[in-house]
Design brief:
The complex is a heterodimer of chains A (258) and B (161). Chain A has a domain of 79 residues: Thrombin, subunit H, CATH 2.40.10.350. Helix content of chain A is 37%, strand content 29%. Chain A starts with a helix and ends with a strand. The relative contact order of chain A is 0.12. With 161 residues, chain B is mostly helical. The longest helix of chain B has 30 residues. Chain B is globular, with a radius of gyration of 15 Å. The chains are: A alpha+beta (258), B mainly alpha (161). At the A-B interface, α1 and α2 of A face α1, α3, α4 and α5 of B.
Amino acid sequence: MLRLVYLGYVLLALALSSLTASFVPQLPGEVSARIAPLFGLGRRTAQNLRAAATSLLDRRNLRAENRALTEEIAWLKESNLELKVELERLRRALAVREAQAPGVVAIAPVITEDTSGLYRRLILGLGESAGLSVGMPVTSPDGLVGVIIETTPHRAVVRTIVDPESRVGVRPAGGPGRGIAVGEPPAGLRVELPVETQVAIGDLLVTGSLQGLFPEGIPVARVTRILPRPPGALRKVVRAEPLVKFGLLEEVVVLGKL
Amino acid sequence: MKAFLLVVFSLVLQSLVSGLLPDRISPPDLWFLLAVVLASRQNPYAGLAVAFGLGLLQDLSSAGYPGFHALGLVSAAYAFYGLRGWLHWEEPAARMVILALAFLAKWGGYLILVYWMRYTTLPASTWVQVFAPELLLTLLLAPVYLRFAEAFLGPEDEAYA
């Protein structure tokens, strides 16, 4: 019996489809349009959900993009900083080249100072592989630093002008009178000048030895004190303060040997 | 009243799921599941009538010719009643087998009407593309939907179980 009923429905379906297609083909569309709101509710909900999901995904993309841009900005800042440092180094090198000597070999970072209280030496981050060798003058935009006394492939030791073993030929910047500046740790110089030399406190002393280790005219120190001259003395002794603050040095300029 | 609410809910859910899925994926057939659920709670004659009515509503809502989905759902309901005598509808595994076979019967009904109407707009490739994902998604959704429907409608009438 159920089979007959089913067959009846089959025939009814076939008849309905045939009749509708033949006589009222527009009927399905009209009915569909009328009951569309019922299904539109779910459809709109789905669209809203999809839009929300898309929005969330976009937001996640924005977050990722924001993160990438932040990283890029950080990289650019770092790069900019490096460029600024490099520019400053080049400016200093240029200043040294213009003011002191044309033979800049390298700009070397100061890694550390020696730990003894007696000596005053610096360790540079460049060595023989960068062309550094013993006897090269080391300077900075502020003034003379010292001379290289030891090298390894990647390091160099600088004896500063305040090292007790340091001897620098100097003269007053504004007049004649060559003398010797001997280092007096921790931060002073003892300068012996000819007794005829006209010098006063605050005068600038520059390198001035003939055929010495250092180029002519590099600023070295300022006179801080003129010691009383004992009777019969052949030298005028003054104390001077180096222009370079060794504790603040980050980079130095290494000049070629004369 | 509960059955009517379930129909409304199912139809809204059908459109919701259809809208959520990408266009290239055929959605699960909640009309089919609804027809089976209602058939499982009716005597066979009423169940066939309900299935046919649902199919007509689906035809009209989709602007199709009346009879296409009606024949599909009434075929599914008829297969359901036949299979229920062989397999236990209460057992989950058997339930899935019944649903799968009833689903095939639904498509058998479609084929009858397609042949009758000489539909040229439904080439074989379309059938293949729609059939597999619809069957898969329908069977995936079936356990959840059936459990919800049973909880919503309450205990089955043992007389027709």
